[in-house]
UniProtKB/TrEMBL annotation:
Its EC number is 2.8.4.4. Keywords: 4Fe-4S, Cytoplasm, Iron, Iron-sulfur, Metal-binding, Ribonucleoprotein, Ribosomal protein, S-adenosyl-L-methionine, Transferase. [4Fe-4S] cluster 2 binds at C168, C172, C175. It holds the Pfam family TRAM_2. This is Ribosomal protein uS12 methylthiotransferase RimO. Residues 27-137 form the MTTase N-terminal domain. Its cofactor is [4Fe-4S] cluster.
Amino acid sequence: MSTNPPDLRPDIAPAARLDGKTRPGQPSIGMVSLGCPKALVDSERILTRLRAEGYGISPDYSGADAVIVNTCGFLDSAKAESLEAIGEALSENGRVIVTGCLGAEPEYITGAHPKVLAVTGPHQYEQVLDAVHAAVPPSPDPFVDLLPASGVSLTPRHYSYLKISEGCNHKCKFCIIPDMRGRLASRPHKAVLREAEKLVEAGVQELLVISQDTSAYGTDWDREVRRGLTEQPITTLARDLGSLGAWVRLHYVYPYPHVREMIPLMADGLVLPYLDVPFQHAHPDTLKRMARPAAAEATLDRIAEWRDICPDIVLRSTFIVGYPGETEAEFQTLLDWMDEAQLDRVGCFQYENVDGARSNALPDHVPAEVKQDRWDRFMEKAQAISEAKLEAKVGTRIDVIVDEVDAEAATCRTKADAPEIDGNLFIDEGFEALTPGQIVTVEVDEAGEYDLWGRLV
């Protein structure tokens, strides 16, 4: 049993789970998946294609004929982590194929690790498959190698990420993701819904909707495709996903005015009353230097409006402290804004330069010790808000989904908690008969800084 938060970086996905079931003589591929949930979905797609061609999936280096490392390039620290993972795979296995966001900079990778077999960029599935074929030829057995209808999943069976678009049209100065993943490209509505239906039919109880900019879904379609729509494409999609009977959780939602259309769906129970909104900061000058919409006061009005429509709504966000030029007064504005916004779930990271980001050239970079001090003060405030909000839940009855059961307790999540990044609810009495994926009702009897404890009712 563990308590949250496990990691406050906003680019972390749950650890990939590999079952390791192979037949004698079957060529096997290992996978190291780093970075965000969007990258995890890319890893699932790659492994699904490989599994369909007869490859086994190895959970360790020793059982793999080659290893794919799906990299992250979000921060310089993430790049360093990716290089370290590539080095470990080379040391332990020797045959390594690199893909993902950092793969958009092949010279950066080969300069550090010249012995990698191939380097491909993000969502370049065909190139990854070609590299695997060259390194480890397929040897399928059509009578044995049957692919599950839902494909290969790297998450527990009861929840799944559902990626609805690629790329992003924003030009935030601190971010290079659009340079690596391109402009917004929304998947067709029918394709997303068909994938969701298959996942629910396979037993998935929770769909976690992800993209680089979820609320912009469909805004890149031409007039012909959007003809006849009476609401924003993301609202129509959320409504249709909500009709499938699973929990639907929305991540990475920019606070455009049309987000208001989705809040009644939450009030009506079609979609979970949960929004993951990357506010990043609150001071208009800081937001301007970030090249983000500088309307913090309008954002507070929007939050109040959302709560008027759906009082149970839970808001999660991430913030950057120590951005170049951030003064003490600007940081204090952020703390004051937090007092007003009273966000339920908050992650924060200290600004880092990223090779290729326009923010690197900004003047007045903040010293490391000041960034650390501001991070500490920010998280102290966020923790106090979280603790007070959770304490108010003691004595209430809520529905939770069971994630894991061990000898100590059942680890669950409420509708207010996304996997790995938010809190847990623990049931430590009478939990033995529970199984992952069950949705049960509990009465909350204890609260901590980030987690709850409860008993079955």
